[in-house]
Structures are given as structure tokens and as C-alpha cells.
Description:
By secondary structure, the chain is an alpha/beta fold. It has helices at about 50-55, 65-75, 90-100, 120-130, 145-150, 170-180, 195-205, 230-235; strands at about 30-35, 60, 80-85, 105-110, 135-140, 160-165, 185-190, 210-215, 220-225, 245-250. It folds into 2 domains: about 30-140, Cobalt-precorrin-4 Transmethylase, domain 1; about 145-250, Methyltransferase, Cobalt-precorrin-4 Transmethylase, Domain 2 (2-Layer Sandwich), CATH 3.30.950.10. The protein is elongated and about 55 Å long. Bound molecules: S-adenosylmethionine.
Amino acid sequence: MKTNMSRDPSKPAEVAKIPEPASLFPPLTPGTLYLVSTPIGNLEDITLRALRTLRECDVIAAEDTRHTGRLLNHYEISKPLMSYFRFNEARRGAEIIDRLKRGQKVALVTDAGSPGISDPGQRIVRAALDEGQRVEAVPGPCALVAALTASGLPTDEFHFIGFLPHKPGQRRRILERFKQADGTLVLYESPYRIEKLLGELSEICPDRKVVLARELTKRFEEFLRGSPVELLELTQSRVLRGEFVVLIEGQA
Ligand code: SAM
């Protein structure tokens, strides 16, 4: 082993900095729509690449500019923001395409998690691809993945159906259809309809294991496990606030 005898032992050894190959962290590509995943609760859940993309893009299209503004503030990122949400998708979509055609790098972020999963995003991705523009995902948090992986239910096959429609007949039809499937059924539900959903599950699949993943990555995160009736009783004895992912065991 070679030692450096000429080093002054009273001074701390210099740690050699290994230069990072530029190819590992290439600059953003002009004319690209970046789908940047952001935290679903815990602000620490953001990748280094997501932060760099937000710093280096030309503009950030956000579902809620105030909400995203708080995230950017936290990470001391200052960047022009434009709003892109369900009710201005068509108009703002055209503006985003125009920017991409002019070679701009546009980062799309939604209120939480991965853009395009049960939030605005899907439409602009289709439009950008149809116009021959590049689309790149900057992966990161996603409520469905966090809930599924920690649920204890099978992950080798699962069916994600996002939010159920509001009409009772349509909800029941979908739940009846997926009852026949082998994999875990994963869906998003608002806290206002969780009791209604558990009531429906108590009738449609009373013997299945159900997991409610609540407030993921946040201070009061919890996983509630039981049959639909057990969980229904729980929701009647305790107010369960916050956001939910609901997971239902597949056919045995
Ligand atoms: N794009 C997001 C993603 O990647 O997960 C989902 C957006 S969708 C509009 C919002 C729904 O995701 C919520 O109603 C809830 O069902 C689920 N969700 C988001 N954050 C959550 C959290 N921290 N805990 C539990 N569920 C969450």
C-alpha cells in the first residue's frame, strides 16, 4: 500500500473529489415535457433529479400554483409558474405545446405524487406526444405504490382503478367486475365517501381483507386492516380524516 509521507499530519487529510461524469447528469433536453413527481405529504420525499429539473426548466406548469409555490419556497427554487388544472386543460395545454415547440423545457407538477395518476397530466402527455414532442418522467412518490407495498396484500398482480364514479349503480358494477379478479384492487377515495365505500364492500365482498392506507408519509400515517364490516364499525366510532388509498384483497 502506498502512503503519502509528505502530508502534514497536523492538517486534515484532503478527501479526493471524484468528478461526476457529465453523462450521469445530462442537461435537460429542449422541447421536453418533464413529469416531475412531488411529495405526497412529507417534503423530504423528492428526488435530487426532481429538484434539478425544477431548477433547470424554463417554466413549471402546476395544478395549484400556491401549493407548488410552497414546495419551491422550501427548496429555494425560483421559477416562473403557470397554472394547469382540470378546468383550463385545453387552453393551457395549447400554450404548453407551443412552448415545447419553441424548444422550452416544461416541468409539470401536480398537487401530490406522480403527474398523470388520477390527476391532470394524462391529457397533456397525449397532446405532447401527438405533436411529436418529447415526454420524460422524473419518477418519485406515488400514493398507490406507497400504499400497496406496505399493505401486506399481494403485489405481484394488482388493479388500480383510481377514483370510483359517484353514481351508485356505476360504482357497484365496477366493484362487482373486479371482485372476479385475482390481484389486489387499489383505489383512491375521498374521506367523505369512505363510509359509503365500506358499506358497499360489506355487501359485495364481505369476506375480503381490506386495508385503508391513511395520511401516507405524514405525521398521522396509519394502515387500518380488517373486513369491510370491521372497518365500517371503526369509521363509525372514530372520525377518520385525511387522504385514503383503499386496497381490497383479490379472489383467493
Ligand atoms: N398523482 C397522485 C399520486 O401519484 O398518487 C394522486 C393524485 S389524486 C388527485 C389524490 C388521491 O391520492 C387522494 O384522494 C388519495 O386517495 C391519494 N393520496 C394522495 N396522497 C395521499 C396520502 N398522503 N395518503 C393517502 N392517500 C393519498
